[in-house]
């Protein structure tokens, strides 16, 4: 047990164990990779900064680089300043020589030569699961641009730590891709790993083009081998496993909403399209035909019946506009957190502070920017307007309200979906992905 003290924080035993696990990796004589994959809300940031504290206490000249989405950069800086007083932290720039540098994935490529010249003791990759791999028509795997840049950056760093709450979201190919992007020693090659999976090989689409094969799940033997592959390098705990009582999810998961006849027709026609973007575009058009959304109306009606602090999420700005119109009509105060707001840190903090105020707005409307890194535990009601194809994103949204220190014993997360055959099929596909993950 390594004695670690973070300013103003009393560590839980599982957090101390996580810090020890990371420190032991750093002290190995060979290069190491670790992925901390605890459930949302269990303190992956705290455990990571416990490792940073140890490295800097051991050698004050230590340089650490944290790669994180731009929406989380300000939060990382605040956490370092609060938990590691006296440690220099800021946006990484050449020749700044900060103890903790922060950088976003989008600028790695333009600064790669300078980054590789740094003597980095540790690289932390937050939300490492965001770089989704793609498959070609022959079953070969290709890392996303972000993942390729991270792979180049981390090739010679003594310790690389990835942070994610979702090792697998859409596809069983993702755990391997995450470890490959971090240059994990001893990782089997893709040709070997792909034999551990079951595959769906679809017919050519309506344009005569062969679609890439789709990995569906693990073979029985492949599941055992995948667990063996992950065990040395991935640490994942749930709230139940560590004995914490986080808010428990209660209530219905899905509420089916009847669309208008015109909306239902447009939405079902979308299901007949073979091109993904066209299908999504037409499905959205059906859900919002003539600017009205029965799905948004159903969510707002539930809030009218029982007023409370709530989050309303949608992938689409237009759907949030429809929800805002319904909230205005109902006289319910709301604020909004989307990409336009998160690009302005002061405005973002203002929105978060307003929602946290007991006398502030009762509802925050948000796009996917609310899925990661935010603490919204003053609310215990979450509404999603339609189901994401990616079930990992649903878990991330729940992590904003189901957190350590929440004043609530339970929470609800209700997904409002238009009741059509296409929606029912989507629900079945997402459930299959959840079971595999």
Explain what you see.
The structure is a single chain. With 437 residues, the protein is α/β, with parallel strands linked by helices. 39% of the residues lie in helices and 17% in strands. Helix 11 runs parallel beside helix 12. The chain is globular and about 65 Å long. The mean pLDDT is 85.
Tell me the structural class: alpha/beta
**Strands across the major sheet, in which order?**
3-4-2-5-8-1-11
Helix content: 25-40%
Computed CA radius of gyration, to the nearest angstrom: 23 Å
Distance between the termini: 32 Å
Q: What about the largest sheet? A: 7 strands, parallel
Strand content: 15-25%
Total of DSSP H or I helical runs spanning 4+ residues: 16
Shape: globular
Strand tally, please? 18
Task: Spell out the key features of this protein.
single chain, 437 residues, alpha/beta, globular
């Amino acid at each position: 047990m390594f004695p670690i003290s973070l300013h103003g924080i009393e560590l839980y035993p599982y957090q101390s164990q996580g810090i020890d696990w990371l420190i032991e990796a750093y002290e190995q004589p060979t290069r190491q990779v670790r992925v901390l994959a605890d459930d949302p809300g269990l303190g992956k940031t705290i455990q990571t900064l416990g490792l940073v504290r140890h490295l800097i206490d051991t050698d004050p000249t230590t340089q650490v680089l944290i790669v994180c989405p731009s929406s989380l950069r300000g939060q990382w800086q605040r956490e370092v300043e609060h938990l590691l007083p006296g440690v220099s932290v800021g946006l990484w720039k050449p020749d700044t020589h900060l103890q903790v540098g922060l950088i976003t994935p989008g600028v790695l490529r333009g600064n790669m030569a300078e980054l590789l010249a740094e003597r980095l003791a540790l690289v932390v990759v937050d939300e490492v699961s965001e770089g989704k791999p793609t498959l070609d028509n022959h079953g070969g795997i290709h890392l996303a641009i972000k993942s390729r840049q991270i792979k180049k950056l981390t090739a010679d760093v003594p310790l690389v730590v990835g942070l994610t709450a979702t090792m697998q979201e859409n596809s069983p190919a993702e755990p391997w891709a995450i470890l490959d992007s971090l240059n994990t020693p001893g990782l089997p090659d893709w040709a070997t790993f792909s034999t551990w999976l079951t595959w769906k090989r679809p017919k050519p689409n309506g344009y005569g083009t062969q679609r890439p094969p789709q990995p569906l799940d693990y073979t029985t033997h492949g599941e055992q081998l995948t667990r063996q592959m992950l065990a040395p390098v991935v640490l994942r705990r749930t709230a139940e496993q560590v004995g914490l009582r986080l808010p428990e999810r209660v209530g219905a998961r899905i509420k089916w909403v009847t669309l208008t006849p015109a909306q239902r027709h447009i939405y079902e026609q979308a299901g007949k399209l073979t091109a993904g973007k066209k299908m999504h575009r037409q499905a959205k058009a059906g859900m919002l035909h003539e600017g009205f959304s029965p799905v948004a109306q159903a969510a707002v009606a539930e809030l009218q019946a029982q007023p409370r602090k709530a989050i309303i999420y949608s992938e689409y700005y237009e759907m949030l506009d429809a929800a805002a119109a319904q909230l205005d009509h109902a006289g319910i105060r709301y604020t909004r957190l989307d990409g336009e707001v998160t690009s302005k840190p002061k405005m973002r903090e203002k929105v978060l502070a307003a929602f946290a105020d007991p006398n502030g707005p009762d509802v925050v409307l948000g796009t996917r920017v609310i899925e990661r890194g935010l603490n919204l535990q003053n609310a215990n009601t979450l509404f999603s307007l339609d189901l994401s194809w990616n079930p990992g994103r649903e878990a991330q949204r729940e992590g904003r309200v189901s957190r350590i220190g929440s004043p609530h014993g339970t929470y609800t997360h209700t997904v409002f979906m238009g009741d059509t055959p296409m929606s029912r099929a989507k629900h079945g596909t997402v459930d299959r992905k959840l079971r595999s993950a």
